[in-house]
Design goal:
The protein is of the alpha/beta class. The chain contains eight helices and 14 strands. Bound molecules: calcium ion.
């Protein structure tokens, strides 16, 4: 689950970013309308948390443009403006929810979860491969019914493999998707994570056959 946070108050933005990351969401923080547009043009997001007062424009205008251009994922407005008119305008423009500042982080997380769940609809929220099962909403994995404890990075890696079963995934792609790094990761970091993932599933009777494709990357077979 990728979430875009558009918030110019650095401290607030980072706080949300950290909280979402701890819940195993992949979060990206941008402080301006311009950067939000770029981010959305670059890659898809599953939800957006949108502040209204931004240094280079109004979040509501951004929302209007997104909805006009066909962006359908849920948008949660976060704003110090708690005027009823703003709230109504936001919802009329296609926001899915409105949370006034100051907010509690637990409340924000609950709203995000509910938005993603409501919006999930036909979207796949459970990925399976043989006896391996990954619940994307609960962020939990099982092997033959037994829970497998994974870190958020391991969960993201598992999600990538399950979504691309049979495909050879290059190291570059894995680095981009799981670490959001376009630069070369410390050379053996991916290997370390893959090995750990294999070991955790082996401890539960196997089920996750990740093949090393020499010189290229990995493949879930
Ligand atoms: Ca602001």
């Amino acid at each position: 689950m990728k979430i875009l946070i558009v918030e110019d108050e650095r401290r607030v933005g980072q706080f949300i970013e950290r909280a979402l990351s701890e819940q195993s969401y992949s979060a990206r923080l941008v402080p301006t309308c311009a950067q939000a547009k770029d981010a959305l043009a670059e890659s898809p997001y599953d939800a957006i948390i949108l502040d209204l007062g931004l240094p280079d424009g109004d979040g509501l205008e951004l929302l209007r443009q997104w909805r006009t251009s066909g962006f359908n994922e849920p948008v949660l407005i976060l704003s110090a403006r708690d005027a009823v008119e703003d709230r109504i305008r936001g919802l009329n423009l296609g926001a899915d929810d409105y949370l006034p500042k100051p907010f509690s982080i637990d409340e924000l997380l609950a709203r995000v979860r509910s938005l993603v769940r409501r919006h999930g609809g036909s979207k796949q929220t459970v990925l399976t491969h043989g006896t391996v099962r990954l619940d994307l909403l609960a962020r939990s994995a099982t092997c033959a019914g037994a829970p497998v404890e994974l870190t958020s990075r391991e969960l993201a890696l598992l999600e990538l493999f399950l979504q691309n079963a049979g495909r050879v995934l290059t190291r570059t792609l894995i680095a981009e998707k799981v670490w959001e790094a376009s630069y070369d990761l410390e050379t053996n970091l991916i290997d370390v994570y893959v090995r750990r993932l294999r070991q955790k599933f082996e401890a539960h009777g196997g089920g996750l056959a990740i093949k090393t494709v020499r010189g290229v990357g990995y493949q879930l077979t």
